[in-house]
Amino acid sequence: MKNVFNNVIESIGNTPIIKLNSIAPHSPHTFWAKIEYFNPGGSVKDRIAVAIIEEAEKRGELAPGSTIIEATSGNTGLGLAMVAAVRGYKTIFVMPDKISEEKRAILRGYGAKVVITPTAVEPEDPRSYLSVAKKLVEITPKAFYANQYHNPDNPTRHYRTTGPEIWGQIGEKLDVFVAGAGTGGTISGVGRYLKEKRKDIKIVLADPYGSILHDWLYHKKVLSPPHSYKVEGVGEDMLPDNVHFDVMDDAVQVDDKSSFLMTRELVSKEGICVGPSSAMALVAAIEYSKKLTKPSNILVLFPDNGRAYLSKAFNDSWMRENGFLPSPLKMRKVQDLLQSRKSHHSLITADVGETVLQVVNKMKSAGISQLPVYSNGTVVGILDEGDLLEPLVKGTLKPMEPIIHLVKGSVVFVKPEEDLSSLNEQLMKGYIALVGEDKKLEIITKIDLLQFLGAMTELSN
Ligand SMILES: Cc1ncc(COP(=O)(O)O)c(C=O)c1O
Predict the structure, then answer these.
(1) pTM of the complete model
(2) CATH 3.40.50.1100 fits 9-38+173-321, yes or no
(3) Under CATH, which number does the domain 328-460 receive?
(4) 312 a catalytic residue
């Protein structure tokens, strides 16, 4: 009976390949995606989770009452927790603190113990998630270390399942296969199988900046020291045994911003909600395709679901905090602010020759607290009610005296097409902003910007 399974484990695999129609509209190439979030645990890692457990059971390394321990960026943990739930094993997972809250919560939901460790430490540091996992294996009775980075059952499962699936689905017309690498199991297993089928299929590694894998493929050494990055699950600061560089033809490095923005584009243009490591691989595939000489079929592996990144890729504040989205100020122009208040008021000005009393009356009748001051038709500064009140109260100024000595020079001219962040910078320096000229001159104050942002937030909520 098709699609009827005796348990959730049997439903792993046979994931679809979907054509991408809008993400690279001008490209002569056709992009396809292997969507691994159709696996029951939501990622490609379900495949290796069942493989690692089944092979360990065959070798007698796992028995009832055992505890499976793994260092994971979440997805392997989820796959192992799912299989362990069916097989009756306990699980403990060690994860770097950059991993999203959603992934931690779902693992706890599967009954796993979750240990969080610092991300930005060397792999051999005793605090790293790899070292802590190894330590836990030493001190936990009947522990089994899944060891996905070096366990050969990982790439072997992809060689035996994912590779043949892809070949059966698109093999004959496939020209390029692109995937990221964390353990390397996916690209190594699939790459080896596809190369055995057709040597001319190109296997391309997508690698985040900060990982050592790209350099290692080309130079067999680390050129730029590894640094942390936001994309989860891919890239490395050490060399897993399961990264088989011999099957790879090329590598493309991708920055975090491109990966996170593509994550959103895939949803809005293709309706496909996947994680940033999938988007990273697609960015790499599009980049790589630029050097192809004939129209080609390019398959990209999408490892997991975007729902595990709602608090990141799909969270505007997080995206802005990380510089992946422009601040709302950058996205709006001075003219937007002016348009938003067109109905409010036209500008009242004063001349340096006017008296204090005249200006006070002007402010009172117009209900304003500041105005620009002209001298011979040119704006020479600004005057606000505070500048008038203080000397009047102290008696250092008489109402019939001219305002010329009170005028503050802190005005700055801004252009209507300037974005609000540069306006904000000027206002923060204490300047009053003027925009336009002559009778069309307008004054913009911090209050105006505040009101505009307030209205914007209201609109976006
Ligand atoms: C989100 C995500 N993408 C990609 C990968 C890389 O897969 P592999 O470990 O097979 O190289 C992982 C691995 O954990 C992952 O979690």
Answers:
(1) 0.83
(2) yes
(3) 3.10.580.10
(4) no
